[in-house]
Write a structure and sequence with these properties.
This protein is mainly alpha-helical. The protein has three helices and two strands; from the N terminus they run βααβα. The protein has a two-stranded parallel ribbon. It is globular and about 30 Å long.
């Protein structure tokens, strides 16, 4: 079994969320969950380099 996710990295986590939000909100999958909740509950990582590293290690 495999587990995949996306990552969007910026120098600051807030900047990453702001830049990724339009792609997430208008994506083809019709996800109704807020971006911040989605990132917490899935292997998708949006944030600073350190935050993405920590998220990746959490799902390892």
């Amino acid at each position: 079994m495999g587990l995949g996710g996306q990552a969007h990295i910026a120098n600051r986590s807030q900047g990453a969320i702001e830049r990724y939000r339009p792609y997430f909100d208008n994506g083809p999958f019709g996800i109704q969950t807020p971006l911040e909740d989605w990132v917490k509950a899935t292997p998708s990582s949006v944030g600073s380099p350190q935050q993405v590293i920590e998220d990746t290690l959490h799902f390892q």
